[in-house]
Amino acid sequence: AQRPLTLLGLGDMGTALARTWLAAGHPLTVWNRTAAKAEALAGEGAAVAATAAEAVAANGLVVVCLLDDASVGAALDGADLSGKDVVNLTTGRPSEGRARAAWAAERGARFVDAGIMATPVMIGNPGAYVLYSGSRALVDAHRPTLEVPAAVRYVGEDPGHAALYDVALLSAMYGMFGGISHAFALIEGEDVAPKELAPLLSEWLGAMGFFVGNAAERLTSRDFTSGVVSNLAMQVAATGTLLRTAEEQGVSTELILPYVELMRRRLAAGGGAHAGEDTAGAITLLKR
Ligand code: NDP
């Protein structure tokens, strides 16, 4: 028999998670602040608790998927967590993950924080995964249950690290979205269909993904110059063309200017000492 669990939160994500556990035969107790969202799941076999405290009392494993950390505090206020295994799938900051872990420990619970790297439609399908950090013993004890909605990627005992990885990935994603947005704005009004540019853009972004490994290698070795094929002086000169083209096309440079300025700052620092680097060295300027 599959092991029972409790799920707090039936928004878009919580509902998708719930359906995978029910479909896999796990006895599931659910609670949601707005009770109407539990009705469909009750029809699919979920037990519906009247309060969060009652839902927590029902099972040893308690999964929480609410809007933000404040809603986790609000929902669990007054619930008896002693002896419970709490898995927090709510998106938050690293500091919130650490504070929530200490909060859970004070209440006698084991705790892991998590970051869901999937949209609700991806849940239960290949490619979806969840980052976990905090109690390794908890993850080991419940791995088969946790793996039902998405693959499990455990990133360490520090309960802040799942959120740290999550935020790092999402921040990189928005940088990429910014570049894609600028590229499409450049062709607007020209006789170039977005669908003509799209395959070239996808292919180019894939090829330029080499920068991830390149940057990791250089940040580890602190060698920013060996084997450079696109030197910083050349790249800064080329970005002048990018900025002027944007002006000629009547497109705002707001999305690409910050990175151009960072490259310029690295080139200007050290009296030309960084001219032969690529752009990985500029990363070292960001940490305040
Ligand atoms: P929704 O907005 O669909 O649902 C939010 C949930 O939080 C609802 O169950 C809502 O209850 C509950 N809630 C909000 N405030 C409170 C409160 N003060 N007390 C109790 N419950 C509260 O969001 P999702 O389900 O999409 O997201 C849930 C979590 O999953 C978030 O942390 C999100 O960042 C994360 N996530 C979502 C992804 C997505 O693509 N959707 C992707 C990756 C992570 P009520 O129904 O009563 O309003």
Describe this structure in a few short sentences.
This protein is an alpha/beta fold and 288 residues long.
Structure description:
By secondary structure, this protein is of the alpha/beta class. The protein folds into 2 domains: 5-160, NAD(P)-binding Rossmann-like Domain (Rossmann fold), CATH 3.40.50.720; 164-285, N-(1-d-carboxylethyl)-l-norvaline Dehydrogenase, domain 2 (Orthogonal Bundle). 49% of the residues lie in helices and 12% in strands. It has 11 helices and 8 strands. The protein has helices spanning 12-23, 39-43, 52-58, 69-76, 94-106, 136-146, 161-187, 194-208, 210-221, 232-249, 257-268; strands at residues 5-8, 28-31, 47-48, 61-64, 85-88, 110-117, 129-134, 151-154. An 8-stranded mixed β-sheet has the order 3-2-1-4-5-6-7-8, with helices on both faces. α10 (232-249) runs antiparallel to α11. The mean pLDDT is 97. It binds NADPH dihydro-nicotinamide-adenine-dinucleotide phosphate.
Task: Describe the protein's topology.
Blueprint: E1 5-8, H1 12-23, E2 28-31, H2 39-43, E3 47-48, H3 52-58, E4 61-64, H4 69-76, E5 85-88, H5 94-106, E6 110-117, E7 129-134, H6 136-146, E8 151-154, H7 161-187, H8 194-208, H9 210-221, H10 232-249, H11 257-268
Parallel strand pairs: 1-2, 1-4, 2-3, 4-5, 5-6, 7-8
Antiparallel strand pairs: 6-7
Helix pairs in contact: 10-11
Shape: elongated
Strand line-up across the major sheet: 3-2-1-4-5-6-7-8
Provide the helix percentage: 40-55%
Give the uncertain stretches in residue-range form.
Answer: none
Rg over CA atoms, rounded to whole Å, is 24 Å
Q: How many domains make up the 3D coordinates? A: 2
Bound molecules: NADPH dihydro-nicotinamide-adenine-dinucleotide phosphate
Share of residues in strands: 5-15%
Give the CATH class of the largest domain.
Alpha Beta
> Ends: how far apart?
53 Å
Described by strand count, sense and barrel closure, the largest sheet is: 8 strands, mixed
Average pLDDT, all residues: 97
The CATH architecture of the largest domain is 3-Layer(aba) Sandwich
Structural classification: alpha/beta
Keywords: Oxidoreductase
Protein name: NAD(P)-dependent oxidoreductase
Domain NADPH-dependent reductive aminase-like C-terminal: 158-274
Domain 6-phosphogluconate dehydrogenase NADP-binding: 6-152
